[in-house]
Write a structure and sequence with these properties.
Elements: E1 3-8, H1 14-23, E2 32-37, E3 41-47, E4 60-61, E5 67-75, H2 78-87, H3 97-108, E6 118-126, E7 131-136, E8 145-149, E9 152-156, H4 159-163, H5 174-183, E10 197-198, E11 204-208
Antiparallel strand pairs: 1-3, 1-9, 2-3, 4-5, 5-6, 6-7, 7-11, 8-9, 8-10
Helix pairs in contact: 2-3
Length: 212
C-alpha cells in the first residue's frame, strides 16, 4: 500500500516532526521507512515492498540528488516508458517503477502524466526550481491530502499525518459536515478538517514561493 507525508519550510525539531507524521501511517508501510530533509522541504515515506524489493527504497533521488520523489502506487506501463527514457540517455540504477517517474519528470516535466497508466499519488521536490510537484491518478485510487499554513504546504496519504504537524490547528469544517449530512458523502475537495483538502482525481499541483 505504502504512504508518504511531508512539509515545506524550516521548523524546529523537524526530524522528530516527520517521524511523528510517518508513525501515523505506519500501517500503510510496515516494511521500511525513509526521510529526506533540507532547509526547504522535509519528506517521509513508509514502504510496503512490491516492485524493486532490493533497490526501491524511498525517498528516491535522481543522479545528482537535485530531484527527490515519494511515490505510492504502481505504474503498469513503467517498462516501456523506461525503455523510451533509456533511449533518450537516462541511466537507471534500480528496477523500481519509482525511478521511472523521476526520469520522466526530468524529460517531460508535468507532461509526464499523459504517459502514465496506473494508480498513483506522488510528490517530487525539484530543488533547482524550488518547486514541489504532486499528482493523483485519474480515478483517485490512491489518496492525497494537503493544507497550506503560513505559506507552507503540509501533505500526506492520510489526514492523520497532517494533524500530527504542530503548525496545523484542528478545526471542524462546518461546510463539509453539512454536505455529508445531506448527501452521505463528501462532494467537495474539502474535508471535515478546516483548510485540509483532498487532491481530486486526475489533478496535479505545483507549490512554489508559498503558493499552490
Amino acid at each position: 500500500m505504502c504512504g508518504f507525508c511531508g512539509f515545506t519550510g524550516d521548523i524546529a525539531d523537524r526530524e522528530n516532526v516527520i517521524i511523528g507524521m510517518m508513525n501515523k501511517i505506519i500501517h500503510r508501510g510496515p516494511d521500511s521507512a525513509g526521510t529526506h530533509s533540507d532547509e526547504d522541504v522535509t519528506m517521509g515515506f513508509r514502504r510496503l515492498s512490491i516492485i524493486g524489493l532490493e533497490d526501491g527504497s524511498q525517498p528516491m533521488y535522481n543522479e545528482d540528488g537535485s530531484i527527490v520523489i515519494c511515490f505510492n502506487g504502481e505504474i503498469y506501463n513503467y517498462q516501456p516508458i523506461k525503455e523510451m527514457l533509456i533511449e533518450k540517455g537516462h541511466v537507471f540504477k534500480s528496477h523500481a517503477d519509482t525511478e521511472v517517474l523521476i526520469h520522466a519528470y526530468e524529460e517531460y516535466g508535468e507532461d509526464m502524466l499523459n504517459k502514465l497508466r496506473g494508480m498513483f499519488a506522488f510528490v517530487i521536490w525539484d530543488s533547482e526550481k524550488e518547486t514541489l510537484f504532486g499528482a493523483r491518478d485519474f480515478f483517485g485510487i490512491k489518496p492525497f491530502y494537503y493544507t497550506v499554513v503560513d505559506g507552507n504546504i503540509i501533505y500526506g496519504s492520510e489526514i492523520k499525518s497532517i494533524l500530527a504537524h504542530p503548525a496545523y490547528k484542528k478545526e471542524v469544517n462546518d461546510v463539509a459536515l453539512e454536505n455529508y449530512l445531506t448527501f452521505q458523502y463528501s462532494v467537495l475537495p474539502e474535508t471535515f478538517f478546516k483548510g485540509v483538502y483532498k487532491l481530486m482525481p486526475g489533478h496535479c499541483f505545483t507549490f512554489h514561493n508559498g503558493e499552490i
